[in-house]
Amino acid sequence: MTSSKTHEAGDAIYIEARRLMVEEIRAMAEETVGYGAGPISERVLAAMAAVPRHRFVPDEERYAAYDNHPLPIGYGQTISQPYIVALMTDLLRLNKDDTVLEVGTGCGYQTAILSELAGEVYSIEIVEPLARHAAGLLRELGYANVEVKAGDGHAGWIEHAPYDGIIVTAAPDQVPQALIDQLKPGGRLAIPVGEGWFAQELILITKDKDGISHSKNILPVRFVPLTGGD
Ligand code: SAH
């Protein structure tokens, strides 16, 4: 950890707010065990307790930064609900030398969580000003193993492929084939899929050692649509 990260995370009020948020995530994970989801690993919860979420929301939303729900970040986009961030991160089972791709950087909060847990993080955001803002903030907060670019994530990011984990935080109608292609054997892809707000399902795709993909439904979810793709 760099000194700036330690400093940012070091505000007492926010540390306590994050502790409560983590307890809420833990409790929520227990409620969803009946679905495809299970308890969330301590490693992921520790990352959730470390990242200063209040820095990733607009100033006027700061008071609610540690509530367990999504918040608006401008451009019609949102910062995802903390529980969903934890759950999707957990599904990837990241190791500290893994290479991860994120599609849908938004404010960069999920990117920071991935940065705490993986070796290299590549993140793509289609709204250029959001990509620029997230890249600057992540740099300022000391998340050095992250690269953000503006673009359409439907095509993945071939230069850094294949990936141990891929996470998509906006919902397409169907899983883009390029993302499956850019997954390593043994790799894991967490993605919400479905048309409209009420028919999305969080899906986990795992690629086995022979390169064959398997898909598992985890939970009904609600994400902004994955745009682009033409
Ligand atoms: N990961 C964010 C969630 C952001 S919401 C978090 O930590 O809270 C989803 C984001 O996906 C939005 O910013 C939206 O602009 C972006 N997005 C939508 N379609 C995209 C596409 N085709 N490629 C890249 N980003 C996309």
Topology:
Blueprint: H1 3-9, H2 12-31, H3 42-50, E1 71-74, E2 77-79, H4 82-91, E3 99-103, H5 109-117, E4 120-125, H6 128-140, E5 146-150, E6 163-168, H7 177-181, E7 183-193, E8 200-207, E9 213-221
Parallel strand pairs: 3-4, 3-6, 4-5, 6-7
Antiparallel strand pairs: 1-2, 7-8, 8-9
The protein binds S-adenosyl-L-homocysteine.
Query: Runs with pLDDT <50, length 5+?
Result: none
Mean pLDDT: 93
Radius of gyration: 16 Å
The first-to-last residue Cα distance is 40 Å
Report the biggest beta sheet as strand number plus sense, adding barrel if it closes.
7 strands, mixed
In total, the number of strands is 9
Q: What is the approximate shape?
A: globular
Order of helices and strands: HHHEEHEHEHEEHEEE
Stated plainly, the CATH topology is called: Rossmann fold
The proportion of residues in beta strands is 15-25%
